[in-house]
Amino acid sequence: MRFRSLLAMAAAAALLTGPAVSQDRYNSADFQRVTHALTCQCGGCNAIVGECAMDRCPSSEPIREEVAERLQAGEAAEDIISMFAERYGLVILSAPPTSGFHLSAWILPGVFLLGGAAVVFAVLRRRRSVAAAAPAGGGAAVPAVDASPEVLARIERDVEQIR
After folding, report:
1. Rounded to an integer, what distance in angstroms lies between the CA atom of residue 53 and that of residue 47?
2. What is the pLDDT of residue 19?
3. H helix or E strand, kind and range, residue 137
4. Distance of CA 25 to CAs 40, 63, 78, 79, Å?
5. pLDDT tens string 50-89
6. In the chain, what are the domain boundaries?
7. Closest by Cα among 4, 54, 62 to 35
8. Contacts by 129-136, CB closer than 8 A, 24 or more apart
9. CA 81 to centroid of chain Cα atoms
10. pLDDT at 110 over 80
């Protein structure tokens, strides 16, 4: 009888500690780093593998399981990420690589942002200088005309007739 109670206690302890041990492999820093570096490939959610909330996802669940197994086998996180990139292509990476041609994906947004800011600055500066050159009355600026006094007098008479 004593043997059965010891056996029952051992089975209960194994059942209670089993899930905790298996959950620890999903909470390690390396597991989080790898699963956040990969994108779910189910075709519907485009979520990060570590955060995919789809119930029974055909992509993220097997990937998480494989990552956990490979980490437990002692593989390095970078090697696991590289292996998935070779298997699926760069589409599985949640961020583009920071080398080679892919470096442009990191640099070009900043270049375009600075270029856009320069264009906006130039347009505002030009508008400010045009506004400063405009007459105070708000009307259009009248260009200076070199005309004889007779022509100016005739223009004055015509303007008076119109009024």
Report:
1. 8
2. 47
3. none
4. 19, 14, 17, 17
5. 888 888 888 889 999 999 999 999 999 999 999 999 998 8
6. 2-95, 98-131
7. 62
8. none
9. 20
10. yes
CA–CA dist 28, 76 (Å, integer): 13
Determine the pLDDT at residue 24.
64
Task: Return the amino acid letter for 150.
Answer: E
Residue 117, both tokens? 């800011």
Gap between the Cα atoms of 79 and 146, Å rounded: 82
72 burial via Cβ count (<10 Å: 0-12, 13-18, 19+): exposed
Type of residue at 158:
D
> Residue 26's CB: how many other CB atoms inside 10 A?
15
CATH domain 2-95 topology: Helicase, Ruva Protein; domain 3 (1.10.8)
